[in-house]
Amino acid sequence: MSDQHETPAQASVEDNLKQVMDLLGRHRLVESLVHKQELSRPDMPRHELVESLVHKQNLAELRKHLDQLHPADVAYILEALPLEDRLLVWDLVKAERDGDILLEVSDAVRESLIAAMDNRELVAAAASLDTDEIADLAPDLPKDVVQELMKSLGSARRAQVESSLSYDEDSVGGLMDYDFVTIRADVTLEVALRYLRFLGELPLHTDKLFVVERDGRLIGALPLKRMLVHDPEAHVAAVMTDDPVVFHPSDPAEDAAQAFERYDLVTAPVVDPNNRLVGRLTVDVVVDFIREQGEQDMLQLVGLREEEDLFTTVWKAAKNRWLWLAINLCTALVASRVVGAFEGSIEKLAALAALMPIVAGMGGNSGNQTSTLVVRGFALGLINKDNARRILTKELGIALLNGTVWGSVMGVVTYLLYHNAALGGVMAAAMLLNLLVAAVAGYLAPAMIDRLGRDPAYGSAVLTTFITDSMGFFIFLGLATVVLL
Description:
- There is one protein chain.
- The chain has helices at residues 13-40, 46-55, 58-67, 71-79, 83-92, 98-104, 107-115, 119-127, 131-137, 143-152, 155-165, 172-175, 189-199, 224-229, 236-239, 253-263, 283-301, 314-340, 343-348, 351-379, 388-418, 421-451, 460-484, and strands at 182-183, 208-212, 218-223, 267-271, 277-282.
- With 485 residues, the protein is mostly helical.
- It folds into 3 domains: 13-175, MgtE N-terminal fold, CATH 1.25.60; 182-281, CBS-domain, CATH 3.10.580; 314-484, SLC41 divalent cation transporters, integral membrane domain (Tetracycline Repressor, domain 2, Orthogonal Bundle), CATH 1.10.357.
- It has a 3-stranded mixed beta sheet with strand order 1-2-3.
- The longest helix is centred in the last third of the chain and has 31 residues, at 388-418.
């Protein structure tokens, strides 16, 4: 009978997390029993009890389980644990895996792990990484650790790290690596194959070799699949592609990510202004960048300034949320003053108090739909000055149609509830007008933020909601005051 049990490597990350938490729970339970036994038998040394009952059992099993997991899975587990348990698990991870795991965890969790390590451990963890990975980790390390790390590197690696650090983290130069294989155009495929066999191992995600001149200038790329199916006696120049997609270190990483998606790239060369090959971009790094940008956009849509550790201190988490809470408080005060200006109307017709949240809520929802689409358009580079007017016109058309349909529905519902035809008409007109306002706000809010040089997702939802709420109250109560009172 075949074994039906999954190995840790086969199990889902959720199952791995559950197993780790179960082992931690057993560890805490035994530690508690040890403490109680120590109190009842003070003549028995605590250290001996802990060593025999805890470290040799549950912690040993936990360490063995962690050793079998991929660094990304260990990172997931660390992010899901409270700080005390996180540091306990981190101490059980083998030192040679520290660098890989530090790269996988979120920025907020990485900060807590680095704080628990001494300089010697940090230097050893970083030195085990590739050059581009060291550059990714360096900004989060203490300055004295970075200085010590740079001294420990060879001159070539040090120059590569310094080069990577000189580029913005959201540029191609900040994402590229230096691990690639080059060949000459005047050799045969058989010679190229012998060269690869001599190397013994290819860099990860290698789908093509870069063809260069003697001075390092890129002249083409040789896909491995072409290399395998063509005559071994054919020259590289006859088989290579001479128009590969190339990038420059200063190119925005966002543009490179779009190109990888558009052209289904696995790797791409990075060249300097003289067309000399200086690095390569790989799909795994691009995917990580896209994921991080998506997570950042989600946070910025609700006004969070930075990624937040789920188990960070209350004080630190509160400070992260203050900015847009303060802005939201100000906008709510403005909206309340709009309502306050019509207190007399609300006192005369109590139905207005019950109906006005509907107008504001529908406007807010519609505005955020438009805002989300516009933010996506800016992120993908689909919106420019040539098509902006057409996009806004389209959104106004959608708002006009939706406002007419759903405003009419709500007008009828209002009439049936309050038996007041004029009130139903005011409700229908207010909803139509506020949906039109929402379309304008949903477009202009991210457009204005983008023009200011910020990510259009940054707080656009908060700003759109403020406009639709304030204008919704003003339109509905203003129309009601003019028509009904």
